Amino acid sequence: MSRKLKILLVYPYWLEDRTHTEDVVSVPIGVYWIAALLKEHNYDVEICNWSDKKNSPDEIRAEIESKKPDVIGYSVLQANRFGALEIAQIAKQVNTKVINILGGVGSTTLWDFFLRNYSQVDACVLGEGEYTMLELVQNLEQDNADFSAIPGIALRDKQGVPYATEERPRIKNLDELPIPAKYFSYQHVILGRGCPGHCTFCGSPFLWKSQVRLRSAKHFVDELELLHERGENFFYVSDDTFTLDRKRVIAVCQDILARKLNISWAAISRVDRVDEEVLSWMRKAGCIQISYGVESGSPEIREYLNKGIREEDVIRAFQLTTRYGILARAYFIYGCPGETPETIQQTLDLIKKIKPLIVHFFILSVFPGTALYERFKEKTGANDHIWADQIEDIKYLELDDSLDLKTVEQYGHTLRETYYSWLPQFVDEIELVDDPDFAPLHADFLARLGMTFHEGDYASNLNLLDSPDIAEKLYQRALDYYPDATAALGLGMMYQKERRYAESVRIFAYGLTANKGHEKLSLALAISLMNCGDFGKALAFLEPFESNPQALHFAAICHQHLGNHMQAENLRFKARKITGEIS
């Protein structure tokens, strides 16, 4: 007799705490695709983002006891493997019959290690997980469950020895999968799977065999539209190289515009896979940022890392991306084979040529499933058991006698300190394409960048003490293009803080010319008018927002000054009811 199973798909917590968590708190995309396929087959599936529950074992236990899952699938990258193992152990303590299944790149690369050393793990999914998980669950519904005939998994034989079943063919037509947005809200999306690159530090060549499969433009934009209807307006397009098929990317952008989706998004690309036409369409369709892996200014180091890019490609990509009002984000790796003060200088020389407005610097790390890891094992004689240690990764410098931690950390300090000393100049030298149709988009780009210096990451960066001045210039330049709401609000608030109320009135009013009824601009303008003594005019910008307690508060002050005491008291009473101060 078959029975329907309760399934939890868990994203576990990471080993080390992080200062910036934005890149590790989002459930991986694949989890949603697996959940959607299971739901299409009428299974009770729940996604649990437990990335923040590192120090909450009792809470995890209580959740498992309450949800009573039959199967728990874990999305294992690398740094969260111990989170998965610890949760799986708790799950077995709650219910010895629960089936714990590891999936993801960590499971695919280290399945033998997990099954050989951790009895709480019942099976590992290898590669794409949608149909494998479906077949696993369908198999478990039967009275005599047997995983051995299911392709794409690893499990133990009767003697307890780990083995892998035959490889599962990759899904040829990704459009056949149900779109997860039918059931869930999320922000990370993909047009396709795989990357043609062979970078030695990346696990993609092992996971996807350097092959790429793409969804149709329509299927992808259908997903964006469903998510937009759910209230999502910003997306991370997480393809390794989103612009690989330029015709498909242009079709995606044209469809976004045809459907009038008011969204913004960030993407990832290679410097040799962008051109003016693609960037123009991407910007018009809402792209505000592209991340490029540059890695090093040294051609020799780039060759060792197998990047396959030329310096002229890097320079051209960054110039064009910035010209179209897209924030070009650069990734650099240091502490690489052959790293010296001279190669660090080559990296700085390249940075000065490309003038990136955001840079992330990382020490080269070695992960399972990468060519670097295979070289590491050959050189040291190590095996996968090293991952039993409480480490997230292995720094390459540990394998290279010519490098040491102090030297590599000094390289990082030099790169960061020099970059930030140049950043104000890079901002001043921003060149944007001269096209009237792009004026609102340029204003938006400059305003967003201004916000980064005004209230974002750069505002608190001690290497950028002149951040307020940079923000002010960016806001003003944005408003020279178009009355952008963000720029007007940012610049007007700066003037307001400096008690330059008449100037702030002018800026807020200018912003409202293209953003009629904008709540924040209207309230800010009203406050400046009040400080100028024009309470009657201020009321006109407050009265439309009768459900906003802040607007009611300021409107009450205006009426008080105008002698309308009863009206002022009525507005205060209404504001207190909205905020719950009185019932």
TrEMBL record:
Gene3D superfamilies: Cobalamin-binding domain, Tetratricopeptide repeat domain, tm_1862 like domain
GO MF, one annotated term: 4 iron, 4 sulfur cluster binding
Keyword annotations: Iron, Iron-sulfur, Metal-binding, S-adenosyl-L-methionine
Domain Radical SAM core as annotated: residue spans: 181-406
Cofactor: [4Fe-4S] cluster
Domain B12-binding: 12-147
Keyword flag Metal-binding: yes
Any one GO cellular component localisation term in the record: cytosol
Protein name: Radical SAM superfamily enzyme YgiQ, UPF0313 family
Species of origin: Desulfobaculum bizertense DSM 18034
